[in-house]
Amino acid sequence: MKEEQVYLGRDEIPRQWYNIHADMPKKLDPPLHPGTQQPAKPEDFAAIFPEPLIEQEVSLEQWIPIPQDVLDVLALWRPTPLIRARHLEAALNTPAQIWFKYEGVSPAGSHKPNTAVAQAYFNKIAGTKRLATETGAGQWGSALSFACCKFGLECKVYMVKVSYHQKPYRRSLMHLWGAQVVPSPSRDTQTGRSILEKDPECPGSLGIAISEAIEDTVTHPGTKYSLGSVLNHVCLHQTVIGLETKEQFRRAGVKPDILIGCCGGGSNFAGFVFPFAGEKIRGESDYQLVGVEPAACPTMTRGEFRYDFGDTAGMTPLMPMFTLGHDFMPPGIHAGGLRYHGMAPLVSELVREEIIEARSVKQLPTFEAAVIFARTEGIVPAPESAHAIRVAIDEAIKAREEKTPKVIAFCLSGHGFLDLASYDAYFAGKLQDYEYVPQTTSS
Ligand SMILES: *Cc1c(COP(=O)(O)O)cnc(C)c1O
User: Residue 146: which of 184, 169, 112 has the closest Cα?
Assistant: First the structure.
């Protein structure tokens, strides 16, 4: 019998990250400075990012070594298991094989610590004392708090005020790992104070929180800023997911036909599929690679490819990417981690080159898929990850109808133990499907 759960040893974590940019025939257009709108130079980023991360951001090296100190922390939970979803296959009566790579075993319960640990490390060796960041629902804030705790850095998290009050447990995790968390808009920055003066009840937004974290960074010596998705170096750090998956499939003697991941800013999907996309670009093998986004925030399937800001306030550099416009306000779907107006430039470019395809799914069918998965495989998925499950199930049903024994693989980016209120709302019939309504955008 072939292996059904493929575990690698602690000493088998990949030693290098894979940089897909090196293999892409068309290189990305450079980011533009937010003020001058001219191509940004690496030194323009020096105020907010440490040197080693800026180098990785613009690197065209195919492989970048993972420092031993990073490997030592990743080894607390990596390599993560690749598991065959036999019970789900049986329930769907499909001839397809369904496999998932489970990133929910990390300390924060998602893939995000893969980059948080690397970012904290490179900041530490560059002399940074303190990191500032923003968080929406708290997944990124908790991942970075953990990473800062491991490397002895202070951590300040600006958490969108509605989530600060509605999602107390991720806030508790950040406290547990020693971070300072404030509801955003806060009294700690000029940006926050001026917003609160006009509207003391302002619920906050990710855009406001980013603006506060950047202001905090440039006004505190020894402080740098950290971002949990979208950027090239974040996608790079996440490639441990796909590199392990490739080795696990090799050991199981199985070749995946289709690989699926959910997309917010694109980082877990990038990490999962880039090593396979590289084989495809180099003409070594073929795979179907599918990024799944919410129909309520359909960046790749309905957005435009153009330069746009990474934040709402227009403080970040402009990046060439699929975007719904930086002033797009996504509806309050429960997959909070997928409510982002843009998409990683690397993922965007690979969609344009048709190496990767994009699909969107609605909220109710997504929760339906999550419940099927929880009732068959036993794991409660994060609502974000459930978008990938929906497409995996759709593909398995298609394989049944077409009688094709395909091998389907998806990235289970996180568990849903801190999202149970969303499941309650789903069972109470309080969730709805949203249609995307294009907004008129400036710039
Ligand atoms: C943050 C998050 C996402 C979305 O972020 P990406 O950068 O697109 O990966 C997906 N799943 C989980 C569990 C998350 O926490």
Answer: 112
Ligand 1: residue whose CA is nearest its atom 5: 264
Cα(102) to centroid(ligand 1), Å? 13
Ligand 1 atom nearest residue 104's Cα: 13
Give average pLDDT by consecutive 10-residue segment, the chain, 443 residues.
78 97 97 93 90 96 98 98 98 98 98 98 98 95 98 97 90 97 96 93 87 94 96 98 98 97 97 98 98 96 95 86 89 81 96 98 97 98 98 98 97 97 96 81 46
60 close to 70: Cβ distance less than 8 angstroms: no
CATH number at residue 332: 3.40.50.1100
> What is the value of pTM for the model shown?
0.96
Domain of 404 in residue numbering reads as 5-9+69-109+233-427
Structure tokens at 64: 């970048």
Q: Does residue 402 belong to any structural domain of this protein?
A: yes
Contact 177, 145 (CB under 8 A): yes
